[in-house]
């Protein structure tokens, strides 16, 4: 059980902002859209990759009270470890992102051979 398993899923808490684009046994792809002033409920994400379709500014609030403000440029790609947060659009533009959530931790239990 992971830390993120104690918080609710983003699609459940904020279905008006998150939509599932694709889902299979390995990944879940989400589209996220909000407007200036919008705020999410507290939710969790597993490890994920984020692609910013638009430029935006937001504040992330973590369960321990820490706050992080980010100013993201359109076209940016970021890797994020799983975490719990509340997101708030504190800019003057919409937020439009694609999030690819990983469903499993791929450890080296099996040796993968490199093609030669």
Q: How many domains make up the coordinates? A: 1
Overall average pLDDT: 90
CATH topology: Jelly Rolls
| Strand residue content | over 45%
Largest sheet: 5 strands, antiparallel
Second CATH tier, the architecture: Sandwich
Description of the molecule:
With 116 residues, the protein is mainly beta. The chain has a single domain (3-102), classed as Jelly Rolls (Sandwich). Helix content is 3%, strand content 46%. It has 1 helix and 9 strands; from the N terminus they run αβββββββββ. The chain has one helix spanning 10-13; strands spanning 18-23, 27-34, 43-45, 48-52, 56-61, 67-72, 77-80, 83-89, 95-102. The longest helix has 4 residues, at 10-13. The termini are far apart. Mean pLDDT is 90; it is low at 108-116.
Highlighted features:
single chain, 116 residues, mainly beta, Jelly Rolls, five-stranded antiparallel beta sheet, four-stranded antiparallel beta sheet, 9 strands, 46% strand, disordered C terminus
Chart the SSEs and their pairings:
Blueprint: H1 10-13, E1 18-23, E2 27-34, E3 43-45, E4 48-52, E5 56-61, E6 67-72, E7 77-80, E8 83-89, E9 95-102
Antiparallel strand pairs: 1-2, 2-9, 3-8, 4-7, 4-9, 5-6, 5-8
Briefly characterize the structure.
This protein is mainly beta and 116 residues long. The chain has one helix at residues 10-13; strands at residues 18-23, 27-34, 43-45, 48-52, 56-61, 67-72, 77-80, 83-89, 95-102.
């Amino acid at each position: 059980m992971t830390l993120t398993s104690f918080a609710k899923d983003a699609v459940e808490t904020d279905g008006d902002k998150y939509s599932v684009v694709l889902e299979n046994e390995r990944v879940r792809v989400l589209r996220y859209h909000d407007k200036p002033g919008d705020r999410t409920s507290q939710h969790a994400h597993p490890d994920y990759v984020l692609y910013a379709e638009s430029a935006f500014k937001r504040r992330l609030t973590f369960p321990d009270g820490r706050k992080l403000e980010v100013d993201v440029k359109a076209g940016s790609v970021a890797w994020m470890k799983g975490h719990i947060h509340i997101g708030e659009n504190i800019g003057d533009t919409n937020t439009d992102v694609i999030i690819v959530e990983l469903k499993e931790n791929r450890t080296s239990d099996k040796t993968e051979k490199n093609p030669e």
